[in-house]
Design brief:
- This protein is α+β, with helices and mostly antiparallel strands and 122 residues long.
- It has one domain: Ribosomal Protein S5, domain 2.
C-alpha cells in the first residue's frame, strides 16, 4: 500500500493505492468525516486520435447529495492514463461549512497528491 498525505488549510487529506496485479485500487479521503461519496472506474485504451497515446473511459457511481464524482473521475483517469492500468477510485471528503475557495484548494491538493502517487507507482 502506498500513501500520500497532505494538509490543505483546515483539512487533512490522504490518497492510498493498493496494487492488484497490474491494476490499482485507490482511496481519496479526508476532512471531518471520511466516507464513500463517489466511486470511479477508469479503463485505459489507445486514444482514438493517436493510437500511440493512452486514453481512458471512466464510469462513475455517486451517492446522491455528494459532490466527489468529478474528483474521483479526474483522479481515476489521470492514474489510468499515466500507468496504462485499470484503476478504481473511491472518494469521500467532507468538511463542514466548506467555502468555495476551500473546495478549490482541496481539489488542487488532491490532484497534486495524485501526481505524487503516480511518481511513486511508476
Amino acid at each position: 500500500m502506498i500513501r500520500v498525505k497532505k494538509t490543505s488549510g483546515r483539512i487533512s487529506l490522504r490518497i492510498q493505492a493498493l496494487c492488484l496485479g497490474k491494476d490499482f485500487c485507490v482511496t481519496v479521503s479526508g476532512g471531518d468525516q471520511e466516507h464513500i461519496g463517489a466511486v470511479a472506474l477508469a479503463i485505459p485504451h489507445p486514444s482514438q486520435k493517436d493510437k500511440n497515446k493512452i486514453s481512458a473511459t471512466v464510469s462513475i457511481l455517486a451517492i446522491p447529495g455528494h459532490k466527489e464524482d468529478e474528483l474521483a473521475k479526474n483522479v481515476a483517469r489521470k492514474i489510468a492514463v499515466a500507468l496504462n492500468a485499470t484503476v478504481s477510485v473511491s472518494c469521500g471528503i467532507h468538511i463542514d461549512n466548506a467555502e468555495t475557495q476551500e473546495i478549490e484548494n482541496i481539489i488542487a491538493a488532491v490532484m497534486d497528491m495524485t501526481d505524487t502517487m503516480i511518481r511513486k507507482l511508476i
